[in-house]
């Protein structure tokens, strides 16, 4: 009984996806919804197969992945560095916090045309947009993680004559790692959104641009196929970061809680 419950718990996400598509199919058939408005899942799968048979689709996938991962990598470097510095220095935190908050108040979509104007229609502008969108969750989680390090552990290492670097590397960054990786899970989702927004705004390659082209050609089933492909890529990237979090922070109590039904 316990084993069956555990398997049901693990398969629950897959079952929910199956139920979602079954409900979608039933809604389209029962209410006789036009395929031009909402294609049934079987037509979208067929369009997806045809899409993957096109040679240029993998070029679009590669470009979107480069933009997403490039922006995500830049967000990790800047977010972890700035979050750590601001957490360790109240003076720097007080000086920079208004600017960091301001970057979050300004709508990112409104900044996208400016980034395209400054960095051009190539990969650079999309990477910057992806980095800006994914920066804040990584920064804020790093800041909270470093601030949350047990003061008693710091004092123990200080009494053992540990320098600033050993305290940072052996204690602070490792204690903050669950927070950082949780921020990265959110950040990778926002990074792919940023890349797609940049491709919507300007560009000739990428899955976002391909979605615009299919919309202009009124190929609704192909448009849904592109969206499905983007979703699958996002899910794979999210699972990759999630697995990295589980691997690097297997000792953390939250990992065990994830596995309990």
CATH architecture of the largest domain: Orthogonal Bundle
Describe the global form: globular
CATH topology call of the largest domain: MetI-like fold
Largest sheet: none
Q: Quick one: how many beta strands?
A: 0
Range of strand content:
under 5%
* Total individual domains: 2
How helix-rich are the residues, as a percent range?
over 70%
* Fourth CATH level, the homologous superfamily of the largest domain: MetI-like
Which radius of gyration do the C-alpha atoms yield?
A: 22 Å
Number of helices in the DSSP assignment: 11
Give the CATH level 1 class of the largest domain. Mainly Alpha
Whole-number average pLDDT?
Answer: 86
Order of helices and strands: HHHHHHHHHHH
Tags for this model:
mainly alpha; MetI-like fold; 261 residues; 11 helices
Question: Can you put this structure into words, describing what you see?
Answer:
It is built from eleven helices and no strands. With 261 residues, it is mainly alpha-helical. It has two domains: 1-33; 44-259, MetI-like fold.
